[in-house]
Design goal:
single chain; alpha/beta; Rossmann fold; 3 domains; six-stranded mixed sheet; four-stranded parallel sheet; 14 strands; about 40% helix; globular
């Protein structure tokens, strides 16, 4: 382990010719809210707005140290890893071939191309990531190129450990509690390997992609079904073999699952209150704080905000999901009598703080009735029980479909 620490320190020093340390900032808002000394390690402020640049840099640096004539590196990614690899390829003056799914948004393709410039070639292959990965690995086998794994590689893990090297130097000591997001496990494996097993830690995964939780229960990496891809930077179906070998000592109760809709509330709060732009994976370490509030009170806490590559076209979705989590927006199917004045009667049942956000006739279910999809926003979730009581008393048939996944997928 001493070799790992020394290598992590060497990686961190080598990075200084490449980019400055990311800030460690005390956050007054969070500190006062939770009665703790809370610091944010701002990986969202790296040159590519995520920590992924570190692992890519270290893996490429070490590969070139072994063979300085190597000129071609390959990765498969539609997100932060692709951007980190592209940036590092330009730095070292090597060719990067970056495989991305055909379905990758143009904004991500453009950013990757901008970071890599003439040193990067983007190949769009496959509708799903598994197909993209297979194409990238097949290319490496044919061309003899060096594959850069996003997390399951010792040199990548070592590079991500540089976050811990900087953090300890900036804070002056290891924190009482470290809060980390987990996807494939590269960041958490690197930081905990550097800090040691005595480091108190809380790890956070998205509820829709609990690969570490499954691995700890199974005793080894296990492929899980991704139920929600919203936290695209951490929704990984299978944690890495090498990363899990460095995380298998973690007690299962130290791993928390963050609901995707609650993460949206955190993204909004950090943007509106603190002016900090975080991607869903980057918000995980802050999102879990209410669950550990009692154990962090009065302690020094470092939350790693792992990325800030947020597409603002997703803001409407974030707002929608946040409101649904808070219970201030609901969707109903209303059976509306087809007679004059019926709609007015329903509208009169709404309270002064209730707004109709959506109103759409679906079909006539009978000669004298029609089905209406209606979305209602209010200022307080406590308003809905009273509203439903008034609707029921008036005799309108109304079904809440807010949490009905099947109907919501087709209608909302």
């Amino acid at each position: 382990m001493d070799d790992f620490k020394n290598n992590a320190k060497a990686a961190e020093q080598a990075m200084r010719a490449f980019f400055a340390p990311t800030p460690l900032q005390k956050n007054i808002y969070l500190s006062e809210r939770y009665g703790a000394d809370i610091w944010l390690k701002r990986e969202d402020l790296s040159p590519v707005r995520s920590y992924k640049i570190r692992g890519a840099f270290n893996a490429m640096r070490k590969a070139l140290a072994v063979d300085a004539t190597r000129r071609q590196f390959v990765c498969a990614s539609a997100g932060n890893h692709a951007q980190g690899v592209a940036y590092v390829c330009q730095h070292f003056g090597v060719e990067g071939v970056i495989f991305m799914p055909v379905t990758t948004p143009q904004q991500k393709i453009a950013k990757t191309r901008a970071f890599g410039g003439a040193n990067v070639r983007i190949e769009l292959v496959g509708d799903y990531f598994d197909e993209t990965l297979a194409a990238a690995q097949g290319f490496c086998a044919r061309e003899g190129a060096h594959f850069l794994s996003p997390f399951d590689d010792e040199d990548v893990i070592e590079g991500q450990a540089s976050v811990a090297v900087e953090m300890v130097e900036q804070l002056g000591h290891a924190p009482d509690c470290l809060v980390l997001p987990v996807g494939g496990g590269g960041l958490s494996a690197g930081m905990l390997s550097y800090l040691g097993r005595d480091q108190a830690v809380t790890l956070v995964e998205p509820l829709g992609g609990p690969s570490l939780t499954a691995a700890l229960a199974e005793g080894g990496p296990k492929t899980v079904k991704i139920e929600d891809t919203f936290v695209d930077g951490a929704a990984v179906a299978r944690i890495g073999e090498k990363t899990f070998a460095r995380l298998n000592h973690v007690e299962p109760e130290r791993v928390h699952l963050a609901p995707e809709n609650r993460i949206c509330v955190t993204i909004q709060e950090m943007l509106n209150i603190e002016g900090i732009v975080l991607e869903p994976a980057g918000a995980l370490s802050i999102d879990v704080l209410p669950e550990i509030a009692d154990e962090i009170a009065g302690k020094s806490v470092v939350c790693v905000t792992s990325g800030g590559n947020f597409d603002f076209e997703r803001l409407p979705e974030v707002k929608e999901r946040a409101m649904r989590f808070l219970g201030v927006k609901k969707y109903f199917i209303l059976r509306m009598p087809q007679r004059p004045g019926a709609l007015r009667e329903f509208l009169n049942l709404l309270g002064p703080d209730d707004d109709i956000a959506r109103f759409e006739y679906l079909k006539k279910s009978a000669r004298n009735f029609g089905s209406v999809l209606i979305g209602i926003e209010t200022t307080d979730a406590a308003h809905f029980p009273d509203l439903m009581a008034r609707i029921e008393a008036r005799g309108f048939a109304c079904r809440d479909i807010t949490n009905d996944e099947v109907l919501a997928e087709f209608l909302i």
